[in-house]
Amino acid sequence: MNSNNAVTIIVPVFNEEESLPRVKTEADKLLKSSPVPIRFLFVDDKSSDSSLNLIKRFVQEDPSAFSYISLKKNSGLSTALKAGIDCVDTPYTGYIDSDLQTSPQDFLIFFDFMEQYTMINGIRQNRSDTFVKKISSKIANGFRRFMINDGIEDTCCPLKIMETKAARTIPFFNGMHRFIPALIQLQGGTVKQIPVQHFPRIEGTAKYHLWNRLIGPFMDTLAFVWMRKRYIRYEISESSDRSC
C-alpha cells in the first residue's frame, strides 16, 4: 500500500470477543466501498478471552486487509494506540473502537478532508450511552474545555484520521488518547470536526466506570496544561548546516 492517501485504521482490542465478528463484518463493508486504499490493524491489549484468536483468524482469511500486533501485557488504550501508530506504514492513520458505538462507514465522510487538515475528529451525535456515562463524560469534557480551551467539541470520539507523520511526533503519555486533537494543535496542526453517528453498545461490556471517567481525565488535564506551558516548538528560518 504505497498510495499517497492510503489509510491504516487502528482497532484497539481488550476482551471484545463478542464484538469482533461484527467488527469484521463492518470492516469488510468499508473495504468494499472505500475510495482510498485502507487496511485494519488490530492491537490486542493482552486480552484474556478469545479476542486474539478471532483476530488471527481474520488476518489469516485476508492478510492484505487485516493485520495485528499483540501487546505483552495489558497497558491501556493510550499505549495500544501508540503501539499501533508506531507500526503504521501508510501516510494516514485512522482509529476506531472495537465496541462499534461509532460506524466505520463514517470514515467515508472523513476521506474528503484528509488532504486539507492534519486531523479529522468526529463529534458523536445523539449519544446512546448510559446516564452515568453521559453525566461523567459531560463533567470531564466541560472541565477539559475550561482548562484547555482548544475548541474541540468531542475530544474522546473514537473515530479519527490523522497524518501518520503528525501522529508519530505528538508527545505520548498515559491518558494521551483524551487529548489527541489538542496535541495535534500543539504542533501547529489543523483539526476538522465532523458530526458522526453514535450507537448503543450491543455486545460486550464497557471497560470504564464513574471513577476512571472522572478522576483520570481530571488528572490528565492538569498534566496536559503543565506540558503545554513548557512545550518546545520552533521553526528554522535560515541555516548553513545541511543537517538542519
Low-confidence stretches: none
Global Rg? 18 Å
Name of the CATH superfamily: Spore Coat Polysaccharide Biosynthesis Protein SpsA, Chain A
Order of helices and strands: EHEHEHEHEHEHHEH
The appropriate CATH architecture is Alpha-Beta Complex
Terminal Cα separation, in Å?
A: 30 Å
Q: Class in CATH?
A: Alpha Beta
* Overall number of strands: 7
CATH topology: Spore Coat Polysaccharide Biosynthesis Protein SpsA, Chain A
Please give the count of helices: 8
Number of domains: 1
Major beta-sheet overview:
7 strands, mixed
Instruction: Estimate the global geometry from the Cα principal axes.
Output: globular
Helix content range: 25-40%
Write up what this structure looks like:
The protein has 244 residues and is an alpha/beta fold. It has one domain (7-230): Spore Coat Polysaccharide Biosynthesis Protein SpsA, Chain A, CATH 3.90.550. The chain contains 8 helices and 7 strands, in the order E-H-E-H-E-H-E-H-E-H-E-H-H-E-H. The protein has helices at 20-33, 51-61, 77-87, 107-110, 131-148, 164-169, 180-186, 210-230; strands spanning 7-13, 38-44, 66-70, 92-96, 119-124, 159-163, 191-196. A 7-stranded mixed β-sheet has the order 3-2-1-4-6-5-7, with helices on both faces. Helix 2 (51-61) links the parallel strand 2 (38-44) and strand 3 (66-70). Helix 5 (131-148) runs parallel beside helix 8. It is globular, with a radius of gyration of 18 Å. The model has no long low-confidence stretch (mean pLDDT 87).
